Amino acid sequence: MSSEHTICPYQSQCGGCPGMDRTHAEQLERKQDWVQRTVNHSVDVVIPSPRSMAYRARIRLVPDDRGRLGYHPPRSHDVLAIDNCAVAREEINRALAASPSVPGSVDHVEFRSDGERVVVALDTAVRRRERVFSWASA
Q: Is the sign of the CA dihedral 66, 73, 127, 134 positive or negative?
């Protein structure tokens, strides 16, 4: 692993970022190979992003039975509660850290960022909207 990467503490359980345990060069090589196989054409140049971490401008989380937000591990309906996401932008992680426990009537919480502001969208069934509106207003 190169020194520019910090392995996410949840990566081994979350499964959302496979390959994070590889060096940056290995990740680029795998992505180049995937693109070549997908488009059936060779790729001459790979231009890496200047951000190897904290680049994702949208994450979608689910609440656990205590209202903590997290991801579903692979092939599971369990929820791995997280405090932050290594690939999410910093402003999203600040919003996540400031979020109170989510009521059980919420199915998903999505955080989106434009680089400065964060919008939080709550997904719930129509019959449970009033409970969510009350929580969101508070």
A: positive
- The reported pTM is 0.78
* Tens digit of each residue's pLDDT (9 = 90 or more) over 90-137: 999 999 999 888 887 889 999 999 999 999 988 887 777 777 777 777
pLDDT (tens digit per residue) in 32-89: 999 999 999 999 888 888 888 889 999 999 999 999 999 998 889 999 999 999 999 9
Distance CA 107, CA 77 (A): 12
Give φ, ψ of 110 to 5 degrees. -115, 130
